[in-house]
């Protein structure tokens, strides 16, 4: 009775030594690929979504999603934007603090202002101007449109 032996792609038997070499070569190649792939992913930036890049419009959610006094940070292309439902209405501003770039937040039950948590910078929830703290510039506003109950932010 004939032994089961490994065969190459054309059906020839592979010697045990060659089979082990082939196996170790495959392991070496896959190990190098596992090490190199994350570095390539780090060096090559991801593609940006075309739907919001360059003057696009982003559907943020519904008015039920962001109740009065609450907010949501969304990605408008590559830019974080805070959409907040203040007592003065739905507003949107850059979510990047103009001091050192922390992401700002808004919860009316804690403060009537947009707050940068890093150094306690406060911005107006009405127009994004600086109210207190170290931020040197106001938050950039973005146009907001509500159609039926859907909230859209325009890249401007
Ligand atoms: S990063 Fe916002 S106050 Fe410093």
Provide structural commentary.
Mean pLDDT is 87; it is low at 48-54. This protein folds into two domains: 1-44; 57-154, 3-layer Sandwich (Rieske Iron-sulfur Protein), CATH 2.102.10.10. It has one helix and ten strands; from the N terminus they run αββββββββββ. 18% of the residues lie in helices and 29% in strands. It has one helix at residues 16-43, and strands at residues 57-62, 71-76, 79-86, 89-94, 114-116, 121-123, 130-132, 141-142, 144-147, 150-154. The protein is α+β, with helices and mostly antiparallel strands and 156 residues long. Strands 2-3-4-8 form a four-stranded antiparallel sheet, with no helix packed on it. Bound molecules: FE2/S2 (inorganic) cluster. FE2/S2 (inorganic) cluster is lined by residues 97, 99-100, 102, 116, 118-119, 121, 133-135.
How is this structure best summarized?
This protein is α+β, with helices and mostly antiparallel strands and 156 residues long. Helix content is 18%, strand content 29%.
Query: CATH-wise, what's the superfamily of the largest domain?
Result: Rieske [2Fe-2S] iron-sulphur domain
CATH topology of the largest domain: Rieske Iron-sulfur Protein
As residue ranges, the low-confidence spans are 48-54
Task: Characterize the quaternary organization of these chains.
Answer: single chain
Indicate the CATH class of the largest domain: Mainly Beta
H/E element sequence: HEEEEEEEEEE
């Amino acid at each position: 009775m004939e032994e089961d032996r490994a065969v190459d792609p054309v059906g020839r038997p592979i010697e045990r030594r060659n089979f082990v070499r082939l196996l170790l070569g495959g392991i070496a190649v896959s190990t190098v690929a596992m090490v190199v792939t994350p570095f390539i992913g780090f060096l090559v930036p991801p593609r940006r979504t075309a739907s919001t890049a360059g003057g696009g419009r982003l559907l943020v959610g519904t008015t039920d999603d962001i109740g009065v006094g609450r907010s949501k940070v969304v990605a408008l292309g590559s830019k974080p934007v805070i959409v907040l439902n203040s007592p003065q209405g739905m507003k949107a501003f850059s979510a990047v603090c103009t001091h050192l770039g922390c992401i700002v937040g808004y919860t009316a039950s804690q403060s009537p202002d947009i707050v940068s948590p890093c150094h306690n910078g406060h911005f107006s929830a009405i127009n994004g101007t600086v109210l207190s703290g170290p931020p040197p510039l106001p938050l950039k506003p973005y146009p907001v449109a509500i159609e039926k109950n859907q909230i859209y932010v325009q890249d401007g």
